[in-house]
């Protein structure tokens, strides 16, 4: 039971067990049925309840093993050469948190993957390297460190690194566990490479962060036509926003990656944000429905999640389960810190499941257990 609320009250299941009831339950079981009151209090908790636990994955510890995978298997052998990150309580569905998957992919210069597609949506956050690219539905997009790239569901896509580039590592985020839970996922491989149907970087040039849209372009798909969000534009936007806006007490300056045509989330099932924590920022605690995976893009700090401290620095990845108390802190007194995150808020919001709560004790800060 959550929040010390007792189930021993009118309106909750309070049936006392007996031999007669036990026999009744067994009789129902033979017919593929059961008595609701035996499970009602468990499947209808007083508050949202997550089956995930907070996790922190240290990049310094993982990086060598990620690179080692490129000595052991080729992209074509592996399909996708990725070291995936799994939550201790979600191993059965290969999820990092909730119904979200994440992993770290490595590609060497001159390597590329076959074009493929799947019903699950995907995104990339670039961690290191030069000369990397992706091709999404015939649109070739080059990327740099801290760029954010989307691969919408059922869009053909492939990845690679130019011959004269440097080994690239990026974080993958997908809603594979969700698509599988809904029994809606699929996978297909293209016979050969995609034919380019637009100039390189057509998407970010046409739909970029300039605030201007080409008036005669028609886009009827449910996801963003802007496939790449460039760090060299995102970071200055954060700094400028901080100059004219109040600092959010929970998240600092937080900006959502958005579909430029609608202002909504970039994809139907996953959203993403970048937030700036000013120097010496001490965020207050809150909790909300929706699962989040974070990566530190700049600086260092720590987060307190359900009373436990997790210290992170650049490239570390951590997760905040749905309805977990959390607060973010920048440890530096002189430098800002930036956190990239992706989430399942598009699903939560569309289904009317979003709710949040503010921590009111101890001046809004959790006591570390």
Can you give a write-up of this model?
The protein is an alpha+beta fold and 369 residues long. The protein has eight helices and 20 strands. Strands 2, 3, 5, 6, 7, 8 and 10 form a seven-stranded antiparallel beta sheet that branches. A six-stranded antiparallel beta sheet has the order 1-17-14-19-12-11. A hairpin with a 2-residue loop joins strand 15 (300-305) and strand 16. It has a single domain, classed as Sandwich (Jelly Rolls), CATH 2.60.120. It is globular.
Structure described in brief:
With 369 residues, this protein is an alpha+beta fold. It is built from eight helices and 20 strands. Helix content is 18%, strand content 31%.
Main traits of this protein?
single chain; 369 residues; alpha+beta; Jelly Rolls; seven-stranded antiparallel beta sheet; six-stranded antiparallel beta sheet; 8 helices; 18% helix; 31% strand; globular
Distance between the termini: 20 Å
What is the CATH fold-level name? Jelly Rolls
Estimated helix fraction: 10-25%
Computed CA radius of gyration, to the nearest angstrom: 23 Å
* Number of domain modules: 1
Strand percentage lies at 25-35%
What is the tally of helical segments? 8
Beta strand count = 20
Q: Mind describing the biggest β-sheet?
A: 7 strands, antiparallel
Write the layout of secondary structure elements.
Blueprint: H1 19-29, H2 40-43, E1 55-57, H3 59-72, H4 75-78, E2 82-85, E3 101-107, E4 116-118, E5 122-136, E6 139-143, E7 148-151, E8 157-174, H5 176-181, E9 187-189, H6 202-207, E10 228-229, H7 231-244, E11 253-256, E12 271-277, E13 286-288, E14 292-298, E15 300-305, E16 308-313, E17 317-320, E18 326-330, E19 337-343, H8 345-350, E20 356-358
Antiparallel strand pairs: 1-17, 2-3, 3-8, 4-9, 5-6, 5-7, 5-8, 7-10, 11-12, 12-19, 13-20, 14-17, 14-19, 15-16, 15-18
